[in-house]
Every structure is written in structure tokens, then in C-alpha cells.
Design a protein that fits this description.
The protein has 13 helices and twelve strands. It is 41% helix and 18% strand. It is α/β, with parallel strands linked by helices. The longest helix has 18 residues. Helix 5 packs across helix 12. The strands form two sheets. Strands 2-1-3-5-6-4 form a six-stranded mixed sheet, with helices on both faces.
């Protein structure tokens, strides 16, 4: 467990928030308060609702009121990126921001989603990413936020699948440009490619993927993806970025097809929050007890 600082009693209380639409369901306040207790920090963390088109007003009001930092959740991660004066390398690679700090009058953005995913895979699930081949479904902000960290962790190939091929192609080109301009760290042999759902059966006859990631909202809507069963059967892990008390539709699909391990995204949620906390406070929390506490609460609900 992290050691509390001897000077915590003299530290001023910091004020944080999560902004989203909707936001009342967010578990961020509970997560960050649990992190603060590990170090003896005193923080205030609240939920702030922003109607569509009002993000900048909510963000500026919070900053003007003495706020120290905010988490950004759906549907504002792309808009938040545009509002930042400075952006970290992972935010630029993702073209999306989920963590904002206020420093010297500037709005500074970073993206911790991918770091949270990689930590969950490595630390809690003991899933090795070095040389792994990944098949990821979706071409929205969720998938864009994790690409750079997956390559940094040593993945050899990431294949993106999406119904909207124009959106998919644009995302791939945007990420490749970010790699070039920012020198995103990934192995020289690493490859990003993409295909449609219709192409998957042909791909499956000659290719296998170690890790399957659902970055769509289908899991929350009880919708099965158009993925051949043999792709699930050949993979080592099927990971859904959303979380729920019961296995999501994606997880059920993987189990039925014979995938040996399935997992939802609760660990990723806790992991990305821990990296946000480290940006704001300079200390990395222990995620496992917070994950276990949340898991128990969700399963009991």
C-alpha cells in the first residue's frame, strides 16, 4: 500500500470533479476519495453535469472557483481536447482528453485511458502484451485512447474493426500521423491495420488474435457483435471496456464460443483514475483494494 506523506496535514484541500452528460452514475468520486485515504490527503471531488454545448462554460466556472483538475467522461473527450492549451503525448495520439489540470493559467490535458487498460491487463490479469496481436472493435474515442499505450506495451499488431469504414480509415491515418510527429514509442515492427466486420471470416482463416477488446457500447445494449466464433475460441482473453454486475453481451459471446478468459472494464476504470490522481497529486495509488471494493459493491447491487 502507498505510504502516506508526513506533510499531508499541512497540505491544502484540493478540489476535483468529473464532467459528463449524464454524470450522476459516475463512480469517480468514490474512486478518488479511496485513493486520497491511502495517502491521508484531503480532497473534494464532485460530479458536474454539462448539457451539450456547455462544456466550456462548466469547465471555466469550475476553474474560476478554484478547481484544481477535472476528469472528462462521455461525450466530451474530443471537445475537451480542443479546449486545452497544452496536451500530453497520449492525448495527442488519441485526439481526446480525459484528464485536465490547471497550471499557471493554462488548461493542460492528458489521456489516461490506455494506461489504465494496460495496467489492468498486466497487474491484475497477468496478461502479457509483448508481441501480442490485438483485435479491437470500435473506432470512437474509447479505442483511440488506448492505441498508443498498447503499442508502448509491446503489442506487435492492432487490428481495428468498425462498421463505418470512412470513420475507421480516418482514425487510422490520424493515429499514424501522431506517431510520426510525436515519435510515439512503439516497436519498429508494430503494425496498425483495419478491416470491416464482413472481412472477419476471411481474416480468421489465416490469422489469430491473442486479445479481443470491445470498445463499442454494444455490451451495454445487449447487442452481440458480428464476430465469428472461431476468433473468440482462438484468443486468450476477451476484454469489454464497459462494466456491469453481470457478464456483458460481448463476454457472454466469448464464453459461448470457448474463449478461456473474459473480463469487463472495471479494472480499466480504476486504473485510468489512478493515473489521473498521479498527475494531480504526484503519487500513484494502489488500485487493487479500490477495484475489489467496487467489484463487491457492483456485484451486490
Amino acid at each position: 500500500m502507498p505510504q502516506a506523506e508526513s506533510s499531508t496535514l499541512s497540505r491544502p484541500m484540493k478540489h476535483f470533479a468529473v464532467i459528463g452528460h449524464p454524470v450522476q452514475h459516475s463512480r469517480s468520486p468514490a474512486i478518488h476519495q479511496a485513493f486520497a485515504r491511502q495517502f491521508g490527503h484531503r480532497i473534494r471531488y464532485e460530479r458536474l453535469h454539462a448539457a451539450p454545448g456547455s462544456l466550456i462554460d462548466v469547465l471555466e466556472a469550475f476553474r474560476a472557483g478554484g478547481g484544481d483538475g477535472v476528469n472528462i467522461t462521455l461525450p466530451f473527450k474530443l471537445e475537451a481536447y480542443e479546449l486545452c492549451h497544452q496536451r500530453g503525448p497520449r492525448a495527442v495520439a488519441a485526439a481526446a482528453v480525459n484528464t485536465i489540470s490547471f497550471r499557471d493559467g493554462l488548461v493542460v490535458g492528458e489521456n489516461t485511458d490506455g494506461l489504465g487498460l494496460v495496467d489492468d491487463l498486466h497487474q491484475r490479469l497477468a496478461f502479457g502484451l509483448h508481441g501480442a496481436s490485438v483485435l479491437m472493435f470500435g473506432a470512437g474515442g474509447a479505442s483511440r485512447g488506448v492505441l498508443a499505450p498498447l503499442f508502448e506495451a509491446g503489442c506487435s499488431r492492432v487490428t481495428l474493426v468498425n462498421r463505418d469504414l470512412l470513420k475507421l480509415s480516418h482514425m487510422v491515418e490520424q493515429f499514424k500521423m501522431a506517431q510520426t510527429t510525436l515519435a510515439v514509442q512503439n516497436p519498429s515492427h508494430a503494425r496498425l491495420d483495419h478491416c470491416s466486420y464482413a472481412e472477419l471470416p476471411a481474416r480468421a482463416s489465416s490469422q489469430r488474435w491473442d486479445l479481443l477488446i470491445n470498445a463499442t457500447s454494444a455490451g451495454l445494449n445487449a447487442q452481440a457483435l458480428e464476430v465469428p466464433a472461431d476468433i473468440f475460441a482462438a484468443a486468450g482473453l476477451a476484454y469489454d471496456m464497459v462494466y456491469a454486475a453481470q457478464p456483458t453481451a460481448f463476454m457472454q459471446q466469448a464464453i459461448a464460443a470457448g474463449c478461456p478468459q473474459v473480463c469487463d472494464g472495471l479494472g480499466m476504470l480504476v486504473g485510468q483514475a489512478a493515473h489521473a490522481y498521479a498527475i494531480w497529486q504526484g503519487l500513484m495509488p494502489d488500485t487493487m483494494p479500490v477495484y475489489q471494493e467496487l467489484r463487491s459493491a457492483i456485484d451486490a447491487a
